[in-house]
Amino acid sequence: MTTPAIASASTASNKSLWVAFAIMVAVFAIAPIWVYPVFLMKVMCFALFACAFNLLLGFGGLLSFGHAMFLGLAGYTSAHAAKVWGWNPELAVVFGTLSAAVLAYVAGSLAIRRQGIYFAMITLALAQMVFFFSLQAPFTGGEDGIQAVPRGQLFGFIDLASNTNMYIFVLAIFLAGFLFIWRVVHSPFGQILKAIREHQDRATSLGYDTDRFKLLAFVISGALAGTAGAVKALVFQLASLTDVHWSMSGEVVLMTLVGGMGTLFGPVAGAAVIVSMQNYLAELGAWVTIVQGVIFVICVLAFRRGIVGEIANWLKKPL
Amino acid sequence: MEIFGIPSQALFGQLLIGLINGSFYALLSLGLAVIFGLLNIINFTHGAQYMLGAFVAYLGLTKFGINYWLALLLTPLLVGATGVLIERTMLKQLYKLDHLYGLLLTFGLALIIQGLFRNEFGSSGMPYPVPEVFQGGFNLGFMFLPKYRAWVIVASLVVCLATWYVIERTKLGAYLRAATENPALVQAFGINVPRMITLTYGFGVALAALAGVMAAPIYQVNPTMGADLIIVVFAVVVIGGMGSIMGAIVTGFGLGLIEGLTKVFYPEASATVIFVIMAIVLLLKPAGLFGTQK
Questions:
Q1: What pLDDT is stored for residue A259 in this prediction?
Q2: B105 in a domain, yes or no?
Q3: Would you tell me which residues 180-239 of chain A have a C-beta closer than 8 angstroms to some C-beta of chain B?
Q4: Is-contact B282 A123, C-beta < 8 A?
Q5: What do you get for the CA distance between the two ends of chain A, in Å?
Q6: What is the value of pTM for the model shown?
Q7: Domain ranges in chain A?
Q8: Cβ under 8 Å to A: B residues 257-286
């Protein structure tokens, strides 16, 4: 980035990102006046989950079809820490994140041994293994899950039983996670990740140990998905099999696809759309699955840029 | 009589169930491998198409009185035709794009098909009677072998080997293998490669439907019968590697047997054993047992 023309373009593009970020913060700050806060917290949890997933797919070109394992496992471990060990919520979230990171390290080490379509199948199979583990392990409560998880006192003195306090806590974590991903994407590490996505052999020939970069991206993505799962377990005071199921892995792919993969804000928009849809179509039962399938087909055939991708293309600015 | 402290009846019973499951793993992973070879797409709809096969047979029997044998012939044709339609209208548009889009599209289609059937039929299973010829079984002395189960194993083996023979030993198969290597060159020789691709997809789908018909009398006919199965079959495919047709067959039957043995000796692990084997294979031979890493 030595030529001034590119440098100015880069600051200009940063400006569009900051404007979009300010709008997003404003929306989440004001929305609870009109919209049910628990619903918004759900949107933010899924938004963080989808952003973490998008780091891997949109910027690393790796399609994981098993990301529910991180969301679900972190939900279980943080719920266990909060309920059985009586840990403070912030420690429970950290513990959930760390456990997801460890799982991501193990799963990632296996999955990156194959590429492309095999990578997707391997992550799906590993996630299914975690599902069966969660079904049988003594601490997860099997079909019942872990219920009545206490939200607890943040840092020992802020009561999260209040939805307002909980909302601010979730918003803070979501924004922190979002900014972290933004930073990662624009760091030298993120640039190399994109290079690997575009042409792995060339990146290797430049001397980069591509497997190490891919594994690190996988661990970061898995850990942040875990953060989302841990927070979600506290918000709903429940950790259950739904979050580990393969359909959840499919949902996060859908959110990212709808919002626009490879864009920073796309997963947030996608999560908002899909979670709202599930909310309003909830009484229609199996139709939710059908509608999701239809959206998948439409997105793949005719709407591959996604919502934010289309807007960015129209504005001719990165978002 | 006991073997390793396990009553032989239980041991052979589980091995038989393992072989049956293995028959379906083999049939389904064979279809996936054939489709992947030419289209470079992982057909996520495979499980839904297997379920479709079972449902078409069930509906044919209950609504039109179509018997098992006719269903065995008609169902693959019918479901295969829907596959041809899917390839012509949708998959065709994706060949120029990243292969992952094919996976996403077929995943969406699977959600639609499974959702529609769950809406219509609920999630409880429906019984499909065992055809009259196959009622009863053989007493082998050490175990009782139901006739229908013996038929499934034999039929599945025959179909698998016939497919292997066509692809590896006939002229048609030679075209197919050539088109897998270099479609542009094969087309230059005057062979209609796009039609070959369409028919290959239709054939792979028909195999899934055939497996569905054969499964109907054993498992209950159920809208979600293919959803979890397909994930196991993906693991089977990763273990075998998709490079070889024979590899898919051998791995399918082999893993079915191993799963059956696990049910006898350590039942808690029977749901996960195939995934564990997948992890071990990835560590030792990432390309799969019969595959070659590109």
A1: 95
A2: no
A3: none
A4: no
A5: 20
A6: 0.91
A7: 37-245
A8: 268, 271-272, 275-276, 278-279, 282-283, 286
